[in-house]
Amino acid sequence: MRRDLLIGQKNEIPAEDTDSPVFMAVLTSIYMYLFIIMLAIFMAINAMASNWEKDIAGAITVQISPIEDANKQIDAAKTQEQLNKVQQFIEQVAGVDDVRVLDEQVVQKLMTPWIGNKVDFSTLPIPQLLDVRLKPDADLNYDEMTRGLKLLTPNASIDNHRLWLNRLIKFATSLKTVALAILLMVVAICAFSIYYSARTSLNINIESITILHIIGAKDDFIAKQYAFDYAKIGLMSGIIGLMVAVPCIILVGKYGVSTGSGLLSGAELSNFAWVLIMLTPLFALFYSMLTSYWTVCKTLEKMV
Fold first, then answer.
1. pLDDT in tens, 217-251
2. How confident is the model over 113-117, as a mean pLDDT?
3. How far is 249 from 269, CA to CA, in rounded Å?
4. Is residue 183's pLDDT more than 90?
């Protein structure tokens, strides 16, 4: 009989190779780190795409180009008059929930990343912008709305964000697909490592297993011995991977996403996502246990 190298649990199968448990613990810890990181990336991208759908798809922007004639004060008054008419018209459109005029400071802040902060905005023909929020499941007739705006003023135009939103959604879907593929690949490689390790251990300890068979031990008993060992390895590896991965996720969220564009602001992990991440050691435990149990049972069937 031996004592398990990692935790000290008694095992009925003598160990001929004492390095395998340590090697598998290190290897599985790396797998779990990669698994947790890719799981976080997948859920962050999913949250970001959902945020786009909620905030961008449920809104349109109406732009009123400023009138530029001879007198700036008269032009500003005419532009303001057109803005008021357009706002009143949009408020009466079915499906519109709220209409808000963006002030100059907000517009300038939106334009600064594109033209820089050294430009004198007072010299630019900055358009007036209306942020139009739609009701849930609103079905606007954009063609009819555009014609109505053109009757009020030729300077008004609509941007419903749909074209570039669809491109963003396709991009996010591609990223999710890649993240999911890597996630599944890590799981598959981990399973193969457990499979190969368990088979190797059986071959190394074939004499001890033969003796156990002679004295009446069943394949199920031997498989449970291995399953218990690999369950401990999986749990410990999951905890180690979690302890390393969580600080990385927090740092990326704090210093990476927070300094990016507004589009990335929705890439935040929800409470449910954090619960899943914290449960990964249990997943590693059961995954390692079941994989090793199945491997040993199938291998012993072929040995008999």
1. 788 888 888 899 899 999 999 999 999 999 999 88
2. 66
3. 10
4. yes
Query: What global pTM score does this model have?
Result: 0.71
Q: What is the pLDDT of residue 3?
A: 40
| Burial classification of residue 143, based on how many CB atoms lie within 10 Å of its CB (0-12 exposed, 13-18 middle, 19 or more buried) | exposed
Burial call 57-96: b when 16+ CB within 10 Å, e when fewer:
ebbbebebbbbeeeeeeeeeebbeebbeebbebbeebeeb
Q: Which of 170, 93, 182, 86 is nearest to 127 (CA)?
A: 86
Could you give the CA distance from residue 165 to residue 158 in angstroms, rounded to a whole number?
15
Average pLDDT of span 264-281: 85
**Rounded Cα gap, residues 302 and 304, in angstroms:** 6
Nearest alpha carbon to residue 91 among 56, 132, 128, 137: 132
Domains and CATH numbers, the chain: 2-54+165-303 (no CATH), 58-160 (3.30.70.1430)
- The full 3-state SS of 185-236, as one line of letters, equals HHHHHHHHHHHHHHHHHHHHCHHHHHHHHHCCCCHHHHHHHHHHHHHHHHHH
222 token code pair: 């031997």
What pLDDT sits at residue 223?
Answer: 86
The predicted-structure confidence for 125-165, as pLDDT tens digits, reads as follows 778 888 888 887 777 777 788 888 888 888 888 876 666 77
pLDDT value of position 1 = 37
Q: What H or E segment, with its residue span, contains residue 179?
A: helix 162-204
**Residue whose structure tokens are 């190394």:** 204
